[in-house]
Specification:
By secondary structure, the protein is α+β, with helices and mostly antiparallel strands. It is built from 36 helices and 10 strands. The strands form 2 sheets. Strands 1, 2, 3, 4, 6, 8 and 10 form a 7-stranded mixed sheet that branches. It has a 3-stranded antiparallel sheet with strand order 7-5-9, with no helix packed on it. α19 runs antiparallel to α20.
Length: about 775
């Protein structure tokens, strides 16, 4: 017998080896010529399968095929429909699905006849795969021609064919509104498939029914009520879907009732009854989904939570890690809103602290921190410390947040808990982990005044050995703000000055600023701090030198003006605080009249005004235009619980960059140049409802002797164009006169344009009644006073 050498690869090389590594496109395309050889296709179907696999591999790796190459390969693959080999036929279906979007639509349609023939085949494997491929290449115009075959396939007795048809129907429904209208006619077939004895068919049928009816709340309610009462669903996946649909209906009803679930409604009673009954299902997935749905019900009472919590408690003793993790995660979420409902699980949860799965152990300890009593804090902290080094940073961050919440809950334990945070702060860890600890300590210092001094000392010790510049600068900034107000501010000077000596330029600059704040707030320390700051006047970094120069100059002036004496003339101690006229406190501690972002926008507005840069008028805060601060309410995410929510077509119609100059449109109009510089611009005021055919907003621009009213008009009608838009005003004061108007010539759909009016007035409160007239768009009004 002939022997062959055996190649043994090292374990590392064996894991990295791929049979398709280093494939070249030209070589693979050369191999594709086998598709045109009928004899080779018939005798070597496995070789054809391998070639198609290589082709799909290089495409998946990002290799692009030219149009000619793609057409040649595509038509070569279509010749493989002649083969009766099941594996090769499945590879053909897969290839057509993958390249359908890349090929010319006219070329893809050619295979429709072959696919339709397979869809009517006696071989169920061909029928199911042909339907799936047709869902990728058929549009609404061709769907009507094969509708009859798909409807027959939906009610087919073979589960593979039926599921394929149902999934394809779902894809058709999402592809276009025209296709969706055709799929809606298949409700009866989907209802029939829902009674199938096959579990996967039931699941796909229910998904399609919900997809068709999801915008009809009454229809969804009837579907859910019918299925939850008759118990006809045998599929665990279908039952899970039904639980989610039920939960969503209950959430929608609660939202309509201002976030409170009306337990007396028929829907709420029937829904809760179904969820509670699902807790006795034989499948663990269904039981967990029902328990989670009960725990997440809006406004649920503690007694209604009990069944779900009891089931989750039983899951905690499961031998399967996935079940324990799911139960622990849900109980942790429940503990945030109803900790007393989870207290009865504490004994089982404590056992999981030592679980080998650190994700489960982390959830267990954070849940105990939420539900435990004050007397158990010390014991829990010891248990946490024992495994902190064994878990990843992402889990450590979760524990830090839980400890922060525990300090707020039990302020009497703040020394122990902040000590724990400071200990892990000095251990190894990444930036996000250290940042979470620093943020937690700073939050606690701001929330609980008793923690301020202890927290400051811990943070000072941290920056002595910190590798993160960003954290060091943040902490130094905070020490400069809070340290001078502590009973013994001098104790922090050493920590700050060490950073001036040992750190990089960014940290040195922050340390210089912190020292300057101490000097401004604590007059008794000014001489010492001045000496320290003078050592930085020759620093190699420009920023550090500039800050030091400013601080030294300000402190020297303050010392010469108000030299601090510890005792007054009578021998009584003098308060160690700056006087009301202290220049250092004013220059170094008082904030700017506006934020830096407002200052930037005001300067941009000032520079945009005609002739502003050539003006002899000195630039100061009084001459800058006032920038309105508009707080934008956060947009509520309606899709989080309502998948049927749709954004308004007008959303963002008037959206502009946050730093945009509101007076830019004014300065761009030559007719308004003589008015001068805008002193103030108001936020937009809505003049119409947002649902009207045209939406109008008004912005008031205040000049030295004029008021310009800018009306922005949004046309929302596709078939209408507004021309020559003007505004008509009714004024309630005799001193107001209209001195000019600029109409908008044209306003097309989805665009907002503007018109202006100018008035002469004295400064006085006045009211305007306005109306818009058009053949269509927006207008500017100006007023003189």
């Amino acid at each position: 017998m002939q022997s062959y050498p055996i190649l043994v690869f090292p374990a590392r090389d064996h894991k990295q080896y791929s049979p398709y590594a280093d494939l070249e496109k030209a070589t693979v395309l050369q191999e594709c010529r086998i598709f045109h050889d009928q004899k080779a296709v018939k005798e070597s179907p496995r070789r054809c399968c391998t070639t198609i696999t290589k082709l799909l591999y290089i495409v998946a790796q990002g290799e692009s095929l030219t149009s000619a190459e793609l057409i040649d390969v595509f038509f070569g693959v279509t010749k493989l429909f002649q083969s009766k080999d099941a594996s090769l036929r499945r590879m053909v279906y897969l290839f057509i699905k993958e390249v359908a979007e890349s090929c010319d639509r006219g070329d893809v349609i050619i295979v429709t006849q072959s696919l339709t023939k397979d869809m009517n085949s006696d071989v169920d494997l061909y029928r199911s795969n042909a339907i799936r491929v047709l869902a990728r290449i058929v549009d609404a115009g061709m769907l009507g021609a094969i509708e009859r075959y798909i409807k027959q396939a939906i009610v087919d007795r073979h589960p593979l064919v039926s599921s394929s048809a149902l999934i394809s129907a779902s894809h058709f429904f999402e592809s276009s509104p025209e296709s969706a209208n055709i799929v809606r006619r298949w409700l009866n077939e989907a209802q029939t498939a829902l009674q199938s004895p096959h579990e996967m068919v039931q699941y796909h049928a229910l998904s399609l029914l919900y997809q068709i009816k999801k915008h009809d709340r009454l229809g969804v309610s009837k579907l859910v009520t019918q299925l939850s009462k008759n118990g006809s669903l045998k599929s665990p996946l279908a039952t899970i879907s039904l639980i989610r649909y039920t939960s969503k209906l209950m959430h929608d009803e609660a939202r309509e009732n201002s976030g409170v679930s009306d337990g007396s409604s028929e829907l709420a009673r029937a829904g809760y009854s179904f969820l509670e009954g699902s807790l006795r299902h034989r499948n663990e997935m269904v039981i967990y989904e029902a328990a989670r749905a009960i725990c997440n019900l809006p406004g649920v009472e503690p007694q209604d939570l009990a069944p779900g919590v009891t089931v989750l408690q039983l899951f905690l003793t499961s031998p399967r890690s996935t079940v324990k993790y799911a139960a622990m995660k849900t109980l942790s979420e429940v503990a945030m809103i109803a900790p007393m409902a989870v207290v009865k699980c504490n004994e089982d949860i404590e056992i999981l602290i030592s679980d080998s799965n650190r994700s489960i152990a982390t959830l267990a300890i954070t849940t105990l921190l939420k539900t435990g009593s004050e007397s158990s804090v010390d014991r829990l902290m010891k248990q946490i410390s024992s495994f902190m080094n064994d878990i990843q940073d992402e889990f450590k961050i979760i524990i830090v947040k839980a400890v922060k919440d525990l300090v707020i809950k039990y302020p009497g334990k703040q020394r122990i808990l902040i000590g724990f945070l400071s200990n892990i702060l000095r251990e190894e860890g990444g930036f996000e982990f250290k940042k979470s600890i620093v943020n937690a300590i700073m939050f606690l210092m701001d929330t609980i005044p008793e923690t301020k001094e202890n927290g400051l000392i811990q943070l000072c010790e941290f920056i002595e050995d910190s590798d993160f510049t960003a954290l060091s600068t943040i902490i130094l900034h905070m020490i400069g703000n809070l340290g001078p107000d502590t009973p013994n501010p001098a104790r922090y000077i050493r920590f700050i000055y060490n950073r001036v000596i040992l750190e990089n330029s960014q940290v040195r600059a922050a340390a210089v600023t912190a020292l300057a704040k101490f000097g401004a707030k604590v007059p008794s320390l000014r001489e010492s701090i001045l000496t320290l700051l003078q050592r930085s006047l020759a620093d190699e970094d420009d920023e550090v030198r500039d800050r030091s120069n400013i601080a030294v100059d300000v402190l020297k002036r303050a010392i010469s003006e108000n030299d601090y004496k510890a005792l007054d003339e009578n021998g009584d101690p003098v308060p160690d605080v700056p006087t009301s006229s202290d220049s250092a406190a004013f220059l170094l501690l008082e904030p700017l009249p506006m934020s830096f972002s407002q200052l930037e926008r005001s300067l941009k507005q000032y520079s945009n005004a005609p002739g502003a840069l050539e003006s002899a008028e000195p630039l100061n805060y009084n001459t800058l235009p006032i920038e309105e601060v508009v707080e934008v309410a956060p947009v509520q995410d309606t899709n989080s619980t309502n998948i049927m929510g749709a954004s308004s077509p007008l959303a963002g119609a008037f959206a502009a960059p946050a730093a945009a100059d509101p007076a830019a449109d004014i300065y761009a109009i030559p007719e308004l140049a003589h008015l001068g510089r805008v002193f103030r611009s108001s936020p937009p005021v809505e003049q119409t409802e947002s649902e009207t055919e045209y939406v109008v907003k008004c912005v008031k621009h205040i000049f030295e002797a004029h008021v310009v009213l800018q009306f922005k008009v949004q046309n929302t009608v596709d078939s209408q164009r507004l021309d020559n838009v003007t505004m008509a005003l009714e004024v309630d004061s005799e001193i107001l006169t209209v001195s000019g108007e600029i109409a908008c010539e044209r306003c097309e759909v989805t665009r907002s344009e503007a018109t202006m009016r100018k008035r002469d007035i004295s400064v006085r409160n006045s009211a305007f009644a306005s109306s818009v007239s058009f053949n269509a768009d927006a207008a500017f009004f100006a007023t003189h006073f």
